[in-house]
Amino acid sequence: MTHCILIGAPVDEGQRRPGCLMGPAAYRVAGLASTLSQLGHTVEDRGDVAMDTLQGETCANAVVHHLPETLAWTRALSLAAQDALRQGMPIFMGGDHSLALGTVAGVAAHAAAQNRPLFVIWLDAHSDFHTVETTTSGNLHGTPMAYAAGRSGFDPFPPFPAPIPGENICMFGIRSVDPAEHAAMQETEIAVNDMRVLDEQGIVAPLRAFLDRVRAADGLLHVSLDVDFLDPSIAPAVGTTVPGGTTFREAHLVMELLHESGLVTSLDLVELNPFLDDRGRTAKLMVDLVGSLMGRKVFDRPTRSY
User: Hey, which residues are catalytic here?
Assistant: First the structure.
């Protein structure tokens, strides 16, 4: 049994398509808490995190937008992550992926305090490996993995606590990477399991290989699940759709393997935009995937009508 701590992160400033701030409410309406309770876990909903005080920071890259707001969210979510990890497993209900600037920073600080290595599985169509300096869109939801890996170019962000070595990062389901991001990742040891790798090798082998490394190192494992990890045909409620994502069956297999590992210690649910959804189908699917991550077996899954 796990003590699951639900934390709303209504972050909408990391991209330009409004709606992600409604994500936490959608997860609650879709039954995330009851799904976890039915699986035997205890659930504590701490409500939504409030943005920290704005400080008016600026940067040299003129295209970056909402920098003070993103920094304020980063501070607030880092503290929320550190506090929750002392008491259970935080599940951050986003919110766009810029929330991971804060959640992963907080998890990294906690791991360092525990003197344990941190590992991250990035379930996403995008690598999110730009920096504040290199982004050409100005959307800071495309930067958290670079921040966590310790890339330079993040002023005025505080230094990332205990940057995560590349070999401790596994990107899974990637299928949209800018040339600048690709070049930067070539200089790291990050395992990039793009859809070509998954088509050739399947889901199980690369994921189990990474999980074996986490287990051998007695590491903490943070999972960051972006809606666009899924194919848009089954998960339309995201502003960054990329064709060719994981199928229903593939996504559930990933979640079931993560559950069987017993290694996951924190979770992001990001980029759900309920304004773009179809009768809540994406929110329900994301909740269903969390159910698999937390122990629901395939034969326990309820029949759904949409």
Answer: 97, 124, 126, 128, 141, 226, 228, 271
